[in-house]
Amino acid sequence: MLTHLRNPLRYQDFYVGLTLVVVAFAGILDIVYGNWKTGQAMGPQAFPRVAYFAILAAGLVISAKSCLGRHDPKQDNITTTLATSFVMITGGVILFLSASHLGFTVSLALALIGGCSLLTKEPLRHWKSTILTPVIAATVMYFMFVELIRIPI
Prior knowledge:
By secondary structure, the protein is mainly α. The protein contains five helices and no strands. The chain has helices spanning 12-33, 46-67, 78-102, 104-119, 127-148. The chain is globular and about 50 Å long. The protein starts with 11 loop residues before the first helix and ends in a 5-residue tail after the last helix.
């Protein structure tokens, strides 16, 4: 078993997974001990709780795969990966800070457009995936929560 383990510190996938684990852990702690603590299992905090556990699971799987040597064959510069992670986390914070001024749906659409543009080479060439898809996703989220299950966002 130990012969199959690789040194994950040289693979960007390990750091991406680790970043996801840290973000999810911070979010779960905020739900349990912070602003979301309401004492209810269901309600407005149910979706973020499920999302954070999904992010945690994805981060653990990505990090574990890099430890086993299954990583993205095309590795970017580690500095680029860490900078992208920092920008994505900062974008998430800006999303929640701007939601009270712009509305959650508009803030989510802008954050998704920014994230997709950051992660796509030639984002204007792939405008359907960097602009149209985030706008549709934010609109679907709005209708799903506000209109279908009557949870204001």
